[in-house]
Each structure stands twice: as structure tokens, then as C-alpha cells.
Write a structure and sequence with these properties.
alpha+beta, BirA Bifunctional Protein, domain 2, Rossmann fold, 3 domains, 7-stranded mixed beta sheet, 5-stranded mixed beta sheet, 15 helices, globular, binds glycyl-adenosine-5'-phosphate
């Protein structure tokens, strides 16, 4: 986080006013990194769609739907009625917790229980100590029982001391808390004008299904893709940008014949893993995990399955956090919207004379979590000097592509360097020109910014018309001809 702030990747939103919990802004380098990731997704999924199982290109079109839709969309999708996290409040500390994050510790012989928040080791140790005092013996973890709060009876809850409380019985029973952000449309703005900020981009695709069918020449199977902001009033935003209240998604709804869901599910699951690898997530910190039956979301009830592409972030270690979900949504959404809107949402196959409500395979990725995973993967401290960091971005997503330096500001070096800088910047963009401080300090700045190549014009260049290129990842240096630099860089950036 310190590096992100220092180098201008990510800032706290409204920082000068003390910030706002769950909101983050991207600085100059972060904005470009995120744009490169979203552009790569759009390019690889929509502009040049991947090759399908039969060897031809997958049929894919793009969409850009509104953040605010008719509120009936969210009634039909189930978000207004059911998009809830059960919460508990503490009447003493006035703090609110996600019920499934609160663990209750009990032991035989004590008529009091102690609560702590899952993952908070200090809180767990404090609970152990307090419970020991109450039971009048020294306790170790093997002596106690720990269970999630929602699994406990009312009576047991009444004996529990909250994670930040002193007295027992101050935790409320779990209550549903809707995650939808409300707003009001129009100048009169009363309760009749309530609308919601979308919690996912997916529903904008479902409600435009008929429009896309009627106006483009897509045939089943085909996908509709869109990127954009989504908003969730998360109860416990945390772990930097991982759980934010405003974030960006990259979603595909892939419509196929109900008989073909298994094939397309497996196809998208494997393709999306390979795509994240191509964005530089090459380590074993990325994994694919198939959901167990009891984890399936309300819409994922047909046979093909659901899996998550996960990343082992430093803050989830040794566990993993979700980067993208691939779900078989069956015909849940189209059926819901057909029932609520009374508009037929189906596909007519002229070849077989058949009408079907297509099933949907949904690869749904988070752009912010993608950026966070890429930042974590790239972060490489120098083994001999841990305060020195190399950000090893894959060249395709790297916000800077190269830097050009005159070794010193005299003897014709700045003129050659400026000329080379302009040539490279016209062709690639995102080239740095840096003539300040020692060459070592300039390299260090670029290493932290993740710039993969630095070209230095030195005292020999006017004579031999060659420059030194220094590689970020190996720190190796080689000499190449000045007039070859541009083509050399072009070849390196597509590796
Ligand atoms: N349309 C399906 C859907 O929205 P989801 O698993 O709730 O599914 C998809 O969200 C992706 O959106 C997640 O894998 C994650 O990358 C991202 N995401 C969800 N909630 C987020 C949050 N609060 N902050 C940042 N990213 C989030």
C-alpha cells in the first residue's frame, strides 16, 4: 500500500478530507495499469474473440448499459429482496459485524462466552485469556470450542461478550442488511422515485438480450460482454481495494443451448484461467477452485457448476481470495425478467424450428481485484536489499513501457535522448524521460514503477550510434544500435 501511494498507483478516495471507507482512487500509474487490463480483456474477448471448441471464433458483442436502471430490474433479479448479508450489532461498542465473520469461544464450566472476528489472531488470543479468567484456569486452544455466531442458540448468544465489548449479552441476533445503494431519480425525490446503483453489470446485459438479438446478427451460442462500475454497500469493506463499495467488473454473459452448458462451462473456465496467466499471474498464487454444491449461488442451480479463479493475496495467505467467478446461471435471469416484464426473452432457431430460453455461462471478473493481484504478483523485493522493490509487470499491462536517459546533461547526450524519447513516445506512448539525479536513482524509480526497459545515451553514443538498454527483471545491460531501438522495443513488448 505504501508503494502504491508513493508511486501513484492507488490513493485513498477523498484523502484530504479523511477518506471514505471502501472507496479508492487510481493515480497516474494505477489508472493506466487498470486501463491496460480492461483494454486487454475487451481486446481478447470482444475485438478478437477467442477460438471456440469447434475451431471457429466465438461469437461475441459488446454492450455499455446504464448504472441506474428501472428499479424493477433489481426486483426481478432478486437483488432487492435477497441481496443481503446477515449482520450483528453490538449495543455496547456500537460496532457492526458480518454475522458469519464472528466466532464464539466457549469452554466447559464457564457460563460466559467470548466473541472475536475471524482472522483476528490478537482478538482470538484475548478471548482465550478472558475465558480462562472466567473458567479459573489457563486455557489453550485445544480446551475451547469455537463456532460461528449464526450456528448458536439465542441463549448462548445472550452469554457472549462482543469482540469490542466488556459486558455479555450486547450482541443482537443476526439481521439482514441489504447491500444495494439507494438513490432518488428526479427533482421531487420522494420514496416513489427510489432507484439503485447496479450491484453487478450482468443485469444490464439480460435486460438488453432482446435488443441485441433484434439488432445484431448473433446466433446461439453467443456472448454479450461489458465492463463498468458496480456498487455494493459492503458491510465490512477491507483489504485495500479487495472489498470496495465502488468497483469495476468485466462480465460476459454467454448464451447457449441448454444441452451445451457443460461444454461451454468447461471452455470458459479453462480459457479464463489461461487469460489471467497471460496477464502475468504466473505463480502458484493463482488457482482454480470448483465450488461445492452447498456454496452455489441462488441463480447457479443447473448442472454444469461454478468455479472461482482465486489469488493468494498477502492478506488472505495462506487462504485465497476470489478474482473471477465462472457460473452456470441456467436460464434463471432470462426467466425472471420474462416473468416480471412480460416480454418474451427467448431465441428462435430457424434451422431446427425450435424456441429456447438459452442458458447462461457467466465469467465475471473484477477489474480492481485483477489490478490488486497483478500488483501483488509484480511486487518483488530485492533479496539483498528488501527496501528496494522491482514491480515485475508483464509488458502488456505495464503502465510504463520504457524510459530514456541522457547519462549526463551535456556533450550532445540530451539532444539524442530527447530525439529517441519523442520517437518512442509517438509509437508506443508511456515512455518516461528522466534526466534528474544519478543513474542508479533513476533506475530505482523505474524499478518501483515497473518500467521494463531503460535506454541510456552515454558519452559513446554520438560516436558509435548505440545505446545501453537495461532490463528491469535481470538488471542485465546490453548495447543496441540507436536506429534499432524502436523495433527492438516493439518485439519485447509483445512477448
Ligand atoms: N454477476 C455475478 C457477480 O457479480 P460476484 O462474484 O458477486 O458475481 C464478480 O462478483 C466479481 O466482482 C468478483 O469475482 C470480484 O472480482 C468482483 N467483486 C465483487 N464484489 C466486489 C467488491 N466489493 N470489491 C471489489 N471487487 C468485487
Amino acid at each position: 500500500m505504501a508503494l502504491c501511494k508513493r508511486r501513484g498507483f492507488i490513493f485513498q478516495a477523498s484523502e484530504i478530507y479523511g477518506g471514505l471507507n471502501g472507496f479508492w482512487d487510481y493515480g497516474p500509474l494505477g489508472a493506466q495499469l487498470k486501463k491496460n487490463l480492461k483494454d486487454a480483456w475487451w481486446n481478447d474477448m470482444v475485438v478478437h474473440p477467442p477460438t471456440g471448441p469447434d475451431g471457429s471464433d466465438v461469437s461475441m458483442v459488446g454492450l455499455d448499459s446504464c448504472i441506474i436502471q428501472n428499479p424493477r430490474v433489481w426486483v426481478a433479479s432478486g437483488h432487492v429482496g435477497g441481496f443481503n448479508d446477515p449482520m450483528v450489532d453490538c449495543k455496547e461498542s456500537k460496532r457492526r459485524y458480518r454475522a458469519d465473520h464472528v466466532q464464539i469461544m466457549t469452554t466447559e464450566g464457564a457460563d460466559r462466552a467470548y466473541a472475536f472476528v475471524e482472522g483476528d489472531d490478537a482478538g482470538r488470543d484475548k478471548a482465550l485469556k478472558q475465558l480462562g479468567k472466567h473458567a479459573r484456569r489457563t486455557l489453550v486452544l485445544a480446551d475451547v470450542t469455537v463456532a460461528p455466531l449464526p450456528s448458536l442458540s439465542k441463549d448462548c448468544l445472550a452469554t457472549a461478550v462482543g469482540p469490542d465489548a466488556k459486558e455479555p449479552g450486547t450482541l443482537t441476533e443476526p439481521r439482514a442488511f441489504n447491500l444495494m445503494f439507494k438513490t432518488y431519480v428526479g427533482a421531487t425525490a420522494n420514496e416513489d422515485d427510489v432507484a439503485y446503483l447496479r450491484p453487478e453489470t450482468a443485469q444490464g446485459i439480460f435486460v438488453n438480450f432482446k435488443n441485441v438479438l433484434d439488432t445484431s446478427r448473433v446466433k446461439l451460442p453467443f456472448g454479450i460482454a461489458q465492463t463498468g462500475k458496480a456498487f455494493r454497500n459492503e458491510v465490512t469493506p477491507r483489504n485495500f481495494t479487495f472489498r470496495s463499495r465502488e468497483f469495476e467488473q468485466m462480465e460476459i454473459e454467454f448464451f447457449c443451448h441448454p444441452n451445451a452448458t457443460r461444454e461451454w462451462y468447461a471452455y470458459w473456465r479453462d480459457l479464463r484461467v489461461a487469460w489471467w496467466r497471460s496477464m502475468g499471474l504466473l505463480s502458484e498464487n493463482m488457482q482454480l477452485r470448483e465450488h461445492d454444491q452447498d456454496e452455489l449461488a441462488h441463480y447457479a442451480k443447473s448442472g454444469a457448476g461454478t468455479s472461482d479463479i482465486e489469488y493468494r493475496f498477502p492478506f488472505t495467505h495462506p487462504g485465497y481470495g476470489e478474482l473471477e467467478g465462472i457460473a452456470d446461471r441456467s436460464n434463471f435471469d432470462l426467466t425472471q425478467h420474462r416473468e416480471h416484464s412480460k416480454v418474451k426473452l427467448e431465441y428462435f432457431d430457424p434451422e431446427h424450428g425450435e424456441r429456447v430460453v438459452p442458458h447462461v455461462i457467466e465469467p465475471s471478473a473484477g477489474a480492481d481485484r485483477g489490478v490488486l493481484a497483478i500488483l501483488c504478483e509484480a511486487f518483488t523485493p530485492d533479496p539483498t536489499r528488501p527496501s528496494k522493490v522491482y514491480m515485475r509487470f508483464a509488458p502488456r499491462v505495464s503502465p510504463l513501457k520504457a524510459a530514456v536517459y541522457p547519462l549526463v546533461n551535456k556533450d550532445g547526450m540530451p539532444e539524442i535522448a530527447e530525439h529517441l524519447y519523442r520517437e518512442l513516445n509517438r509509437r508506443f506512448g508511456f515512455i518516461e524521460y528522466d534526466a534528474k539525479q544519478s543513474i542508479g536513482k533513476r533506475y530505482a524509480r523505474m524499478d518501483e514503477s515497473g518500467c521494463p526497459f531503460c535506454f541510456t545515451i552515454d558519452g559513446e553514443t554520438p560516436g558509435d550510434q548505440a545505446v545501453t538498454v537495461r532490463h528491469r527483471d535481470t538488471q542485465l545491460q546490453e548495447r543496441i544500435a540507436l536506429d534499432r531501438v524502436s523495433d527492438w522495443l516493439a518485439a519485447e513488448l509483445v512477448r
